[in-house]
Write a structure and sequence with these properties.
Layout (H helix, E strand, L loop, with lengths): L1 E10 L2 E6 L7 E5 L5 H13 L10 E7 L5 E7 L2 E6 L4 E2 L3 H5 L5 H7 L1 E3 L12 H7 L3 H20 L9 H19 L2 H61 L7 H28 L5 H4 L6 H9 L1 H31 L18 H23 L9 H4 L7 H33 L7 H21 L5 H25 L1 H26 L11 H66 L10 H46 L7 H55 L5 H12 L1 H19 L2 H12 L3 H40 L3 H59 L4 E5 L6 E5 L4 E3 L5 H22 L5 E4 L7 H14 L5 E5 L2 H14 L3 E6 L2 E5 L2
Parallel strand pairs: 3-13, 3-14, 8-12, 12-13
Antiparallel strand pairs: 1-2, 1-4, 4-5, 5-6, 6-7, 9-10, 10-11, 14-15
Helix pairs in contact: 4-5, 5-25, 6-25, 7-21, 7-22, 7-23, 7-24, 8-20, 10-19, 10-20, 11-19, 12-18, 14-17, 14-18, 15-16, 19-20, 22-23, 25-26, 27-28
Length: about 1000
C-alpha cells in the first residue's frame, strides 16, 4: 500500500492540515524542534494501528491509501470511533492489520518499517522469535509461532519448575505426598491402639489413688471444721471463766465503795470539763512580744529621720534623671556629629577620646604629597607607545624546526615499513600454516633403499657369494642412507624453522614499532588498515608545519620591532616605578600621621577642612566631660540616701526595693503596727489570768487522783476499767458460775462424748485458731484442686475408651489406599500429556528452523545488495544463521566484525537489513510505507550523499518518508534530488505543511 493523502483535522498542533505525499519518489520532511515532526510521525502510525490506550482525546483525522491491486481506501479515526471505507464508501470497522497483514502489530511495524537513530545500532531484533517468524517465515511463520505459543501455554498449565507452582502436575504431586503422609499415620493405628489400652490402665490406677487421697483430706478437713465451730463456745467459756476468777480475787471491799467511786468520777468529770473549757480559751490566743509585732524596733529612730528627708531624696532623684537625659541627648548628638562632618561620615565612638593633633606636621606632609602627585602626573603624560601582538601570532605549534619535522617523518616512514613487513610476515606465516606437514619425502625412501642395499651387500659378503667389494659396497650404501636421512630430516623440519624465524622477525619488528610509538608525538598506526588514515593525518600535519614556518618568520620581524618599543617602555616604567615609590612613601607618611592621630583617611589637599571639623568634635567632647562631673556629684548624694534606706530595709527583713516609696511604705507599716501592739497588751493580761485559774484546777484534779488510787488498791486493780470489771464480777458471782457450768455442758454435747470433749477442750486450750484456719483453707483448696484433677482424669479415661472403640471399627486405611491409586493414575496421564507437548514443541522448533533457512538467504542477499549500493561497492554483508553475528567484507576481501565498525558504517548496515526485511514482507504480503527518522546524525556529508542517492532510487518503487531536523541534510537531499530528477521536499513549521520547490 501507498499513502495518497493525510488529513490532520485535529491532531496535536495540526488543525485542518493536509498533505499529499509522493508515491513514486522519496519524501523528505524537514522540521526543527517543536515544529510538529514527531507529531506527523505519530499520526501516520496512529492511522495504521490506532491510538494508544487513553491517548484518543481530542484527536481526529483520516488517511487515504492505495493498495497494490490499484484499489483506493480511506481510514478514519475520530477519538474512540474508527472505520475505513473503500472507493464505494463501504464501511468496515475491523482494524487493517487483522484483515490484510496477518495481525502485524504496531510494535512489529516500529521495529522494521519505522526506523529511528536508536534503532540502527544493533541487530538483536533478528534473534527475536516473533520478528523471525514474521519476516523470515512470512505467511506460514505466524501460524507456526502461534502453535508454539499454544503448546508452551498448555505445558505451563500442566507443570511449573517452581517449588511454589500451582499447576496441575504440581498439585497432583502435592496431593500424592499428602496421601503418603496419611497412609504413614494410618499404618501406626495398631501401635496407637496398644498405647491407648496401656494409657487406660494407668488412668484407672491414678484415679483410684487420687480418690483415696481425696477421701483422707476431706476427713481431716471435717475435723478442723469441728474445732473451728467449737471455738466460739470456747471463747465464751474462757470469758466467763475469767470473770469468775476476777470475782474470787475481791475479798475486802467496802459496802459503799461503789458509791464513793461514782461520786469521785462525777467530780473528776466536772473538773475535766472545766479544764477543757479553760484550755480552749488559752489555746485561742498566744501572748506576743513587741519585737514580734515590730521586728525593726531598733531601726525606728533612723526610719523616722529618713522619712523626714524623703522630699530631699526625691528631688535628688529628679535632678539625676534630668542630668541622665541631658547626657543621653549629648551622646546622640556626639555620635551623630560624625554624619554631619563630611570627612568622618560615620557615627563617632564615645569611648575613644579626641587626641591632641600636631597640625604643623600635618601641613608639612600634605605639601610633600602634593609635590609627588604632580611629578607622577607629568610622568604618565610621557608614556611611549608599544604595538600589541595578536593572540594568533603568540601561538606556537608543537614542531619548532625542520630537523624536528624530519625526525617525525622518519619515524612515520619507519612505522609504515615495519607494518608492511609485519603484514608480509603474517601472510607468509599463514601460507606456511596452510601447507600440509610432510612426514615422508623422496629422501626418506632413498635412505630406506640404501639401508636395504647395505643389508643385501653384507648378507652376500657373509654368505661368501661375493668378495670384499660387496662389503665395501654395503658400507657405501650405509653412508648414503645416513646422508639421505639427514637431508629428509632437514626438509621435514624446514617449515618449523621457517615459522620460528618469521615469529622472531615479527617480535623484533613489534618491539621496534612500540619503541617508535612511544616517541611518536600522536596516535601511531598499529595495523596496515590504519595506514590510509595515518597518511591523511601526516599530510595534514605536513601542510600545517610549512604554514607554521611562514608564520614564524613574519612573527620574528614583528617581535623585533615590538622589542625595541618595549625597551623604551621599560625605561619609562622604571622611572615611573621610582616616582611611585616616592609617592607611596609620602602617602604612607600621610596615612600614618592620620592613623596615629585617629583622623579619617582624606586627601592631603583637605587638611584645613579636616582641622576645622576636628575642632567641632573637640568642643563637643568637652561638654560631655562637664556633664559627667555633675552626674558624679548627684550620684554621691543618691548613694548616701540608698545606704541609709538599705540599712532600714535590711532591719525590717522585707523584700522591698531601695527607693523613697519603700521607706514611706515601711513608715506607714510601722505606725500601723504600733497601734496594733497597744491592742495586744490587753490580750496578754487576760491570758495571764487564765493561766492562774488553770493552776487551781490542776491542784483539785490531783486530789481526786489520790482518792482513786486508794479505791484501786482495795481491789488490786490497775486502772478504772479493771476496777469496774472486778466490782461487777464480785456483785454477779453466782450468775457467772451458773453460765460457766452451762457453757461446758453445751460443749460436751457438741463433742458427743466425754472422751471427745476432753480431747476437744484440750486442743482448744492450745489456742492455735490461726493455724487451724490456715490449715483449713489450705485443705479446702487442695480438696477443690484434687476434685478438678479427678474430674479431668475421668474425662480423659472416657475419651480413651471412646478412641479405643472408634479404632476397633475404622476403615480409613482402605480409603487412603484407593485415593493414592487414583492420584497416581492422574499423574501418569498428565505426564503423558506433558511429554507429548514437549515432543511436539521440539518438532515445531525443527520445522521452524528448516522453514527459516529457506527464507533468510533471500533477505540477506537483498540487504547485501542495498549495502553495496549505499557504500558504492566498498562493503558486502554476511549474517549467521541465528541472526546474532553480522560481519562485513571490504573490497580487499577483509572481514570486519561488528565491534570494529565505525558508527556511520553500522548505521548503513542495519539500515540495509531493515529495508531488505521490509521489502521482503511487501513482496509476499503487502508493501507498507517506510518511515526513517533522523538516521543521518552519525553520517558525514559524503556518506549522506551516497545513502540519499540509494534512497532516491528505492523511493521510485517503495514509498519512503525521510524525516530530519537538520537543514544541511535537507540541502544535500535537494541537491541529490536535482541530480536524480526525483524527490519531494516538505518543510514543517508550527503545524504548517509547506512544499519546497526544487
Amino acid at each position: 500500500m501507498k499513502i495518497t493523502d493525510l488529513e490532520l483535522e485535529q491532531y496535536g498542533i495540526y488543525h485542518h492540515a493536509s498533505w499529499q505525499p509522493s508515491q513514486t519518489s522519496l519524501n523528505v520532511v524537514m522540521g526543527e524542534n517543536e515544529s510538529g515532526k514527531t507529531t506527523m510521525l505519530r499520526f501516520i502510525r496512529d492511522m495504521l494501528f490506532g491510538y494508544g490506550r487513553g491517548k484518543w482525546q481530542g484527536r481526529k483525522g483520516n488517511m487515504g491509501f492505495v493498495r497494490s491491486d490499484g484499489k483506493f481506501y480511506r481510514v478514519h479515526r475520530d477519538e474512540k470511533e474508527k472505520w475505513f471505507e473503500n472507493e464505494n464508501h463501504v464501511k468496515v470497522e475491523e482494524e487493517l492489520p487483522a484483515i490484510w497483514w496477518h495481525g502485524l502489530n504496531r510494535y512489529m511495524y516500529e521495529k522494521i518499517f519505522a526506523v529511528g537513530l536508536e534503532d540502527l545500532q544493533g541487530a538483536s531484533f533478528l534473534a527475536n522469535d516473533t520478528v523471525r517468524s514474521r519476516f523470515f517465515m512470512l505467511q506460514g511463520g505466524d501460524k507456526l509461532a502461534n502453535v508454539k505459543a499454544k503448546i508452551q501455554d498448555s505445558k505451563g498449565k500442566l507443570f511449573s519448575a517452581s517449588t511454589q507452582g500451582k499447576r496441575k502436575i504440581n498439585q497432583l504431586m502435592a496431593d500424592l505426598e499428602e496421601a503418603n503422609k496419611t497412609l504413614d499415620s494410618l499404618s501406626n493405628q495398631e501401635k496407637e491402639f496398644s498405647d491407648l489400652q496401656h494409657k487406660q490402665e494407668e488412668l484407672k490406677k491414678n484415679v483410684a489413688e487420687l480418690e483415696g487421697k481425696l477421701e483422707k483430706d476431706k476427713e481431716q478437713n471435717q475435723r478442723l471444721e469441728k474445732r473451728l465451730g467449737a471455738w466460739d463456745y470456747y471463747q465464751r467459756a474462757a470469758d466467763v471463766k475469767r470473770q469468775l476468777d476476777l470475782s474470787e480475787q475481791v475479798t475486802m471491799f467496802p459496802s459503799n465503795g461503789k458509791e464513793q467511786w461514782n461520786q469521785l468520777m462525777n467530780r473528776m468529770n466536772v473538773l475535766h470539763d472545766q479544764k477543757e473549757s479553760l484550755q480552749a480559751k488559752l489555746d485561742e490566743y498566744k501572748p506576743v512580744k513587741k519585737e514580734e509585732v515590730i521586728p525593726w524596733l531598733g531601726a525606728v529612730g533612723e526610719l523616722e529621720k529618713l522619712y523626714v528627708d524623703l522630699g530631699q531624696w526625691r528631688q535628688t532623684i529628679s535632678d539625676a534623671e534630668a542630668l541622665e537625659q541631658e547626657k543621653e541627648n549629648w551622646r546622640v548628638d556626639y555620635v551623630n556629629l560624625g554624619y554631619s562632618l563630611p570627612f568622618w561620615d560615620h557615627p563617632l565612638n564615645i569611648d575613644e577620646p579626641c587626641a591632641n593633633v600636631d597640625w604643623e606636621e600635618g601641613r608639612r606632609l600634605s605639601k610633600s604629597l602634593g609635590v609627588r602627585n604632580n611629578e607622577l602626573h607629568f610622568w604618565e603624560q610621557r608614556e611611549p607607545e608599544v604595538e600589541d601582538i595578536s593572540e594568533e601570532l603568540k601561538k606556537e605549534g608543537a614542531v619548532q624546526s625542520e630537523s624536528d619535522w624530519q625526525g617525525i617523518e622518519t619515524m612515520a616512514s619507519s612505522l609504515e615499513n615495519i607494518l608492511h613487513d609485519q603484514a608480509s610476515i603474517h601472510k607468509e606465516m599463514e601460507q606456511l600454516n596452510g601447507e600440509e606437514d610432510k612426514k615422508f619425502t623422496p629422501w626418506f625412501w632413498l635412505s630406506l633403499v640404501s639401508i636395504l642395499c647395505a643389508g643385501g651387500g653384507m648378507a652376500a659378503f657373509y654368505t661368501a657369494r661375493a668378495g670384499t667389494m660387496a662389503a665395501y659396497g654395503a658400507g657405501g650404501a650405509l653412508v648414503l642412507a645416513v646422508i639421505f636421512y639427514l637431508i629428509h630430516n632437514h626438509v621435514v623440519h624446514e617449515k618449523g624453522r621457517s615459522l620460528e624465524k618469521l615469529t622472531e622477525q615479527d617480535r623484533q619488528l613489534e618491539e621496534k614499532r612500540k619503541a617508535i610509538e612511544g616517541k611518536f608525538p600522536g596516535q601511531a598506526p598499529k595495523t596496515v588498515e590504519e595506514l590510509q588514515a595515518f597518511h591523511n593525518l601526516m599530510q595534514e600535519k605536513r601542510s600545517d608545519f610549512y604554514k607554521d614556518q611562514a608564520q614564524r618568520q613574519a612573527i620574528a620581524w614583528k617581535k623585533e620591532t615590538v622589542r625595541k618599543q618595549q625597551e623604551q617602555h621599560k625605561k619609562w616604567e622604571e622611572e615611573g616605578k621610582l616616582l611611585k615609590t616616592k609617592k607611596e612613601e609620602a602617602e604612607k607618611s600621610w596615612t600614618h600621621w592620620l592613623k596615629s592621630n585617629h583622623l579619617p583617611q582624606v586627601g592631603a589637599e583637605n587638611l584645613s577642612a579636616l582641622q576645622e571639623q576636628w575642632q567641632k568634635i573637640y568642643s563637643a567632647e568637652g561638654k560631655g566631660k562637664i556633664l559627667d562631673l555633675r552626674l558624679e556629684q548627684v550620684d554621691a548624694r543618691l548613694d548616701m540616701f540608698s545606704r541609709r534606706a538599705a540599712s532600714v530595709i535590711s532591719a525590717t527583713g522585707l523584700n522591698y526595693p531601695v527607693n523613697p516609696d519603700s521607706i514611706a511604705a515601711i513608715y506607714e507599716e510601722n505606725q500601723k503596727r504600733s497601734m496594733e501592739w497597744e491592742a495586744l497588751q490587753e490580750k496578754n493580761k487576760q491570758h495571764a489570768a487564765y493561766e492562774k485559774e488553770m493552776e487551781k484546777l490542776d491542784d483539785r484534779w490531783a486530789s481526786c487522783q489520790r482518792e482513786m488510787d486508794t479505791l484501786l488498791n482495795l481491789v488490786h486493780a490497775k486502772n478504772a476499767e479493771e476496777f469496774a470489771e472486778k466490782v461487777n464480777a464480785h456483785e454477779h458471782h453466782d450468775q457467772i458460775r451458773k453460765d460457766w457450768e452451762r457453757i461446758r455442758q453445751d460443749l460436751r454435747m457438741y463433742a458427743g462424748s466425754d472422751e471427745e470433749f476432753q480431747s476437744l477442750w484440750h486442743s482448744l486450750e492450745t489456742g492455735q485458731y490461726d493455724d487451724w484456719m490456715e490449715e483449713h483453707k489450705k485443705l479446702t483448696k487442695q480438696v477443690e484442686e484434687e476434685s478438678a484433677q479427678l474430674a479431668e482424669m475421668q474425662r480423659s479415661q472416657g475419651a480413651v475408651e471412646n478412641e479405643i472403640f472408634r479404632l476397633a471399627g475404622d476403615d480409613s486405611i482402605t480409603k487412603a489406599l484407593q485415593n493414592k491409586e487414583k492420584i497416581q493414575a492422574e499423574i501418569h496421564a498428565s505426564l503423558q500429556e506433558w511429554l507429548t507437548l514437549m515432543y511436539t514443541e521440539e518438532v515445531m522448533n525443527r520445522a521452524q528452523s528448516i522453514y527459516e533457512s529457506g527464507k533468510q538467504p533471500e533477505i540477506v542477499e537483498k540487504a547485501n545488495e542495498f549495502l553495496k549500493e549505499m557504500t558504492m561497492g566498498k562493503y558486502s554483508l554476511t549474517i549467521s544463521e541465528n541472526g546474532k553475528d553480522i560481519e562485513i567484507e571490504d573490497d580487499m576481501h577483509r572481514l570486519k566484525s561488528e565491534k570494529i565498525w565505525s558508527s556511520g558504517t553500522g548505521d548503513q548496515v542495519y539500515l540495509a537489513i531493515r529495508l531488505a526485511m521490509a521489502l521482503s514482507f511487501g513482496s509476499q504480503i503487502e508493501p507498507l510505507p517506510i518511515v526513517l527518522d533522523d538516521i543521518f546524525v552519525r553520517f558525514d556529508e559524503k556518506r549522506q550523499r551516497e545513502t540519499l542517492r540509494f534512497l532516491m532510487d528505492l523511493g521510485k518503487t517503495q514509498q519512503i518518508f525521510l524525516f530530519t531536523c537538520h537543514e544541511r541534510t535537507m540541502h544535500i537531499a535537494e541537491e541529490v534530488g536535482y541530480e536524480k530528477g526525483t524527490g519531494e521536499f516538505i518543510h514543517l513549521s508550527q503545524g504548517e505543511i509547506e512544499q519546497v520547490g526544487q
